[in-house]
Amino acid sequence: MHGRFLTTEEETRGILLILKEQRLIRAEPRGDEEWYELTHERLVPIIRQWIRVDRKYFNFTAAKDLIDNSSQGEFWRENPETLLNEGQLEGVIAPFQARLRLDQEKIEFLFWSAVYRRSGHLEYWHGRLDRATVEPLLFQFLSSGYSGLRRGAAAAIARLRMGSTGLLTRCVDLALHDQDSFVQRDAGAALAAVGSTAELGLLKAALSSAVDRPKALQVLADFEMAGRGTGDFGLLPRLRARRIMHKRLIAANLHYITARTGAGLIAGVVSGVLWAPTVGLAYAVLMWMLFSSASGPSAIVYFVGSFLVIGCLFGPVFGITVAWSATRRDTIGKRRSLTLDVLFSIGYVGIFLLYVIVLFAIYTLVISRSDWDRNGADYAMLWSVPLIFWGSILGAVWIVDRASGRTRREIEIAVWATICSFIVPLFVYCAVFWGCVMADLGNSFKSAAAASAVSIPVASCIIFTSISSLVVARRQRAYPKNQEPVSGSGRVT
Length: 493
What we know:
Helix content is 71%, strand content 2%. By secondary structure, the protein is mainly alpha-helical. It has 3 domains: 9-49, no CATH class; 130-242, Leucine-rich Repeat Variant, CATH 1.25.10.10; 254-473, no CATH class. Strands 1-2 form a two-stranded antiparallel sheet. β1 and β2 form a beta hairpin. It is elongated, with a radius of gyration of 36 Å.
């Protein structure tokens, strides 16, 4: 037992006592020692048969033999590919590692394997290895010609919290000058985990060098991803590092962002088509009543058809851009907010500018120049009315966001979206109309009324499709784990 098993004295004495009570062994004093032997030789074949059929003991023996055979010679020190792989460390060695009696050379072999394979059992083999040899080994690994060994050593420094100045200075050098980008990132993560003031000083010096600055910013991004403060590096480097971190997180989860964006696009198309015969129909009846002197009841069909075109146009655009914005904000760890999801979407900003330009061009060409005030009030109204309605979109989304509460149940959001997509634009239109009347704008009133009439359905459609897209896009809640070396604090709400 002493040669193969790692047991305590109490465990060994307990086992021997049980065997003695069962009369399978007997004690024989030999000088100052007590030896044990089988009570009869006829037990030998029975014990051998039991050992052959006992699966657990067979696996234990296989683990011990694997270590003995693999660690023979010194070739594993020259070529780390001959070390044990993760499957062997996890599936063969790990179940019996606490019972294996090994000398320091075999423990060092297993430590090499755990470092190189980035094994989850690194801490265990580090604990059994002679502490005086750990730091020299890690420094040797950091200087190895094998990038995998340099990566493993940098990751081990972070996991084992090895704060040695020599090791961390070497990590700074690797993070700034190593040819392998993965080694750079692991070295940067080690600095973020256990770097001291001395290493921060080296990074500051690197930031002042035009040659080393790009790599130093990457290291600061490693600090940001590890949640370590970078306040000592100045505002501009911190902002640039944070931007790099965001790019890494987005790249790591791009497949998931794409999936959620696709869901938002489909939702935008469907909700845009559904908006026309529902909320759009209500607006068609309302506009027919407002302009009944110029058109008959058949105008309702015209309005609904026009609104269907609006829904088919704005639905996909806002479906894809709002879902993309929401997923990106989730990925980089921003606070969940339907309002901010819409505000920072490309569709919201881009279509607003396009909408203003189109209105300005239409009314410049359609309305006679003699109808315009010389003081430019008409031009001001053409710019201000779309701005007011675009603000109403954010207001409506904010109301839905607040009204849905912490539970954010999809049915509640859908009901509030339908209500707000009808009420809010109509309320804003009435406010603009009343304001123009009270201000006595003269000819500018014509521009304000026309621009408002066009803005109502557009704003309503955007509110309805944007919120619908966000609801569908957020159904997929679980992010996949970020793959090394990219990791971070991206979250899903």
